[in-house]
Amino acid sequence: MTAATHLPEADCLPLLSSQNQGWENIVVEQFQHPSGEGRTHYRDEHAICLSLAPRPVQFLQIKGGKTHASLYGKSDISITPAEMPCFARWEGEDCYMQIRIASQFLENVAKEALKKSPNRLELVPEFRLRDRQLEAIGLMLLAELQQENFSSIYVDSLSNILAIHLLRQYASNKPQLQIYEGGLPQHQLLQVLEYIDEHLHQEIKLADLAALLDMSQFHFSHLFKQRVNIAPYQYLLQQRIERAKQLLKQRDRSIIDIALECRFNSHSHLSKQFRQLTGMTPTAYRAT
């Protein structure tokens, strides 16, 4: 994604950023800086800012021909559509996260979910709002960014959920999104499960699974969870742990080799996920 960004000083560089982590269609960053001011102008990304400040911060914002002055506290959210310049001045130390989602990705999600091309898709600018679902999505993305290792299929899932939520709640012309019920038919489910089993040693993206059935990532995730009772990323993690269990029976295999074969980035990454799902470490499991 490309964006034109103008910030006044080095203090505005992010504490954390997904910019170079391989995340697709979305950028998540965490900031903390003292009193100041700044301007942003993202040509092809919508920007969502979520306050993490422990104390309210006085803000003056100008965007879309409107000026807004108020205290921003923890959980307050602002939305700036793509191509809209924004000026902000704040008094006091500020801490917040910013999510930038590609406008083309949002349009693609709308097209796939609607099965038709929407008219020009625009988001409505928002200055200070509370939205528990949007906040929850943001915090889950931030938590994933803070992990030593991230799950691409989990980030893909959250990105699609975020896109659908923005379309439903903040599009200028809210599209009517179809929701299919009943879960995946058995033959489609088997096709997906076989694909996952055959590619556990490779990176598997949500887009790969949805493409198998020629459906949108949002609808695929919805129907998969209806049928299996867990999300695709959870099922994929479970199957990788099951594969690791099988390989741990081969006592000549090192745990780091098993971790890498099952697409965990390190021994500690496998151990953490293994313990969460089984209640024991790979070493303890091998000894049973």
From TrEMBL:
Pfam families, per the entry: HTH_18 (PF12833)
SUPFAM superfamilies: Homeodomain-like (SSF46689)
Coiled coil: none
Domain HTH araC/xylS-type as annotated: residue spans: 190-288
PROSITE patterns tied to this protein: HTH_ARAC_FAMILY_1, HTH_ARAC_FAMILY_2
Molecular-function GO term, any one: DNA-binding transcription factor activity
This protein's UniProt keywords: DNA-binding, Transcription, Transcription regulation
SMART domains, per the entry: HTH_ARAC (SM00342)
PANTHER family the UniProt entry points to: ARAC SUBFAMILY, HTH-TYPE TRANSCRIPTIONAL ACTIVATOR RHAS-RELATED
Record's protein name: AraC family transcriptional regulator
Species lineage: Bacteria, Bacillati, Cyanobacteriota, Cyanophyceae, Chroococcidiopsidales
